[in-house]
């Protein structure tokens, strides 16, 4: 009977050792899986960041181009207005001086 008890204890010890070894393998596998997931998430984050940088760069270029176009349009309109004003002053100098004096007088009244 003592022999049977010893055999039973040896069997339990072997089962525990096998279970521990299996548990160790599972833990190692989990560590590898977690490392793989972390690497995947890092790569995904880097790709998203790169995409966001590209989108921001494109948006900046578009806004910059629109700003330049707007500036050119405003400059062109100002040049046209200046030419029209200059020609109107050359055609009617006395009227232009009277209008300028009237506008100056109105501004002076408003500022008081």
What report would you give on this structure?
There is one protein chain. The protein has one domain. With 112 residues, it is mainly alpha-helical. The radius of gyration is 43 Å and the shape is rod-shaped. It contains two helices and no strands.
Features:
mainly alpha; single chain; 2 helices; 112 residues
What's the SSE blueprint?
Elements: H1 2-91, H2 93-111
Helix pairs in contact: 1-2
Number of strands: 0
Coarse morphology: rod-shaped
Class of secondary structure makeup = mainly alpha
Secondary structure tally, helices = 2
Query: Roughly what percent helix?
Result: over 70%
Stretches where pLDDT is under 50 for at least 5 consecutive residues are: none
Query: What series of H and E elements makes up the topology?
Result: HH
Mean pLDDT: 87
Beta fraction: under 5%
Terminal residue distance = 121 Å
Return Rg in Å: 43 Å
| Largest sheet composition | none
Total count of domains:
1
In short, what is this structure?
The protein is mostly helical and 112 residues long. 97% of the residues lie in helices and 0% in strands.
């Amino acid at each position: 009977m003592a022999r049977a008890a010893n055999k039973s204890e040896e069997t339990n010890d072997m089962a525990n050792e096998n279970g521990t070894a299996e548990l160790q393998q599972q833990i190692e596998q989990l560590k590898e899986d977690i490392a793989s997931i972390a690497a995947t998430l890092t790569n995904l984050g880097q790709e998203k960041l790169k995409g966001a940088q590209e989108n921001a760069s494109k948006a900046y270029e578009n806004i910059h181009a629109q700003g330049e176009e707007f500036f050119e349009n405003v400059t062109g309109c100002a040049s046209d207005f200046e030419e029209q004003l200059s020609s109107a002053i050359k055609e009617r100098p006395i009227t232009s001086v009277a209008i300028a004096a009237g506008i100056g007088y109105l501004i002076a009244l408003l500022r008081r």
